[in-house]
Amino acid sequence: EAGVAQSPRYKIIEKRQSVAFWCNPISGHATLYWYQQILGQGPKLLIQFQNNGVVDDSQLPKDRFSAERLKGVDSTLKIQPAKLEDSAVYLCASSYRRVAGGAVQYFGPGTRLTVT
Amino acid sequence: SQQGEEDPQALSIQEGENATMNCSYKTSINNLQWYRQNSGRGLVHLILIRSNEREKHSGRLRVTLDTSKKSSSLLITASRAADTASYFCATAPTNAGKSTFGDGTTLTVKP
Asked: Are A46 and A114 in contact (CB under 8 A)?
């Protein structure tokens, strides 16, 4: 089966500009996650969708970050305006279903964002 | 703060040796997972162990879980250069529906 697809793979922007990332999960996976991974750290969950509804966005900086998952399939994550500290790898993951105990997640290759 | 924390932060061994890394966590969990991340790539799921399990094997991987000590260990036997990667534990607390990742152990296996 095809894995999680993400684009672009790399992006360089100046601070205060906007940027958008796209993710297409594995077919049939109802749960989609966006993570931010700063160099040398583990992934930090930004937002979790179940189908097209948000189930957790407690760590999403809502003043500048937004995400949507229209039709419950692919998703976009936007940053507007970007700050230097947003430089990181943005990972998308999906799982077959939301499990209270923690589901196995399948990750895409990530988008490396550099803000100058 | 992180729910799971890996130890050591970095580990360097020779090919053929065993590698052991540990994960400690703070609250009760439903399960604990280990993932691998090669440089510049996404994470790959390795193994999941439930709170009622004590040990699990998958090929050259052995995972143990001690809920009384709130810790887990990942053992990679007969390591290969291709095992060079960062390894993360992800813990799923019983009162939450999401897993939280630690900052990982970076393993270097020298040929």
From this structure: no
